[in-house]
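Quick one, probably user error.
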């Protein structure tokens, strides 16, 4: 496979190969082998047309851990303001010897567009409301690390499903690996077509919480809301926010995930975000090794296709 555009495209076997490669990188890091050399002499470009902290920093660090050179591009301050197109901008950066392009864009399909026009391998770092494959991979890796499996688990994605690329990628990945997926949120934030993806839909968190192994608390994406937010923030926090009272209704070993950034006091209270069930910072750490695994496996494919020994 040349690109990582979404988990819709990846098979169960491919997902497991990435997860297992990430486990190997984690094992190596635990014995102090943090600096590896397979991407030495290559260049990874981070093209971010939307804000990011976790994805941007971890892709940059992942590339450095594999000894690639990196270039960082932000749309603000670039020649986009002079009218240069998205594809021309990417092709210009590619012409500086870039082999791997990590791209985040507000428009669904932007990474696929680059895949059509560039020779570089494209990694989707989040495209609008469509997919965020490496986020879902790190979520799934974190769940697998905790439970030792994905098959048979019940994972509930809570909140703003309508605007969530994280939800879509999680659904594709979790379903392929055998989890039961519940999407739970207000009717206004759950698109009707989501049930076509084979998920259970609920509008009442208190109805599903006791049979859930993992809760993935999605951020309310205020920046993608049109008009007024409904329900209100206060209503949302009351009906769907994760707090101590709700944790007490959950399984004893329930795992609390959040892709971040989190709105403390809205989808999660600080005591739960920082409490014993939360693996939010563990997800961030796992994001680094997942992105290393994605870059490394694409590099193996690229060198094989060019006839270069890996
Ligand atoms: N979860 C996530 O994609 O975070 P960033 O927007 O900070 O990269």
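Nope, works fine. Designed sequence:
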């Amino acid at each position: 496979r040349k690109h990582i555009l979404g988990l819709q495209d990846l098979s169960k076997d491919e997902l497991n190969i990435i997860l297992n490669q990430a486990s190997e990188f984690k094992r190596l890091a635990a014995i102090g082998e943090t600096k590896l050399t397979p991407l030495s002499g290559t260049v990874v470009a981070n093209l971010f047309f939307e804000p990011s902290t976790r994805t941007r920093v971890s892709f940059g660090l992942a590339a450095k851990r594999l000894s690639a050179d990196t270039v960082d591009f932000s749309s603000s301050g670039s020649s986009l303001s002079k009218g240069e197109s998205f594809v021309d901008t990417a092709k210009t950066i590619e012409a500086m010897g870039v082999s791997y392009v990590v791209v985040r864009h507000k428009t669904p399909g932007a990474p696929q567009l680059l895949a059509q026009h560039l020779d570089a391998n494209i990694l989707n770092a989040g495209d609008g409301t469509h997919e965020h494959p490496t986020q879902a991979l790190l979520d799934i890796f974190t769940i697998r690390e905790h439970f030792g499996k994905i098959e048979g688990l019940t994972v509930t994605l809570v909140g703003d499903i309508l605007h969530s690329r994280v939800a879509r990628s999680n659904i594709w990945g979790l379903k392929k690996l055998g989890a039961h997926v519940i999407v739970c949120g207000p009717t206004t934030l759950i698109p009707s077509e989501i049930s076509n993806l084979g998920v259970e839909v609920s509008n009442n968190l208190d109805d599903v919480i006791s049979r859930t192994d993992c809760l993935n608390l999605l951020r309310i994406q205020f920046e993608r809301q049109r008009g007024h937010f409904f329900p209100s923030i206060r209503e949302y926090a009351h009906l769907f926010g994760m707090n101590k009272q709700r944790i007490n209704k959950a399984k004893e070993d329930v795992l609390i995930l959040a892709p971040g950034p989190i709105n403390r006091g809205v989808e999660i209270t600080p005591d739960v975000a920082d409490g014993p069930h939360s693996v939010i910072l563990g997800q961030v750490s796992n994001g680094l090794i997942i992105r290393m695994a994605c870059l490394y496996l694409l590099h193996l494919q690229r060198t094989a296709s060019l006839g270069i020994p890996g």
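The first strand starts at residue 43 and ends at 48.
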